[in-house]
Amino acid sequence: MRNPFEYALIRAVPRVERGEQINVGVILYCQARDFLSARTHIDERRLRALSADVDVEQVAAALSGWDLTCAGGEHGGPAAAMRLGERFRWLTAPRSTLIQPGPVHTGLTSDPAADLDRLLILLVH
User: Fold this and answer.
1) Is the pTM for the entire model greater than 0.85?
2) pLDDT at 7
3) For residue 81, what are the CA distances in angstroms to 33, 69, 74, 85, 117?
């Protein structure tokens, strides 16, 4: 059985004033499967092409925060206590920071984790 899901790209914007970005991950939420997770990948060469002095460790730390928030628990910050759908909405809300979500898209899935991996390969790698 296939269930609807929502996903958004996670983008690194090393110089917000320029608006240049690269895809560094995907977040996927499937209410019917009680699933919320993010997968990330930083291509340091491409990131440095946008900003030679970008702090790659800072980007990695920010992405780690997304993972922790998706997982919930005490290390995920205040949003980690929210229900999965609320967390997804909070993470995908527009912001003007180093890490930004793209627009939310939809699809159908029978295996959210596999589709998340597929989207990471297709849209990020």
Assistant:
1) yes
2) 98
3) 19, 9, 8, 11, 25
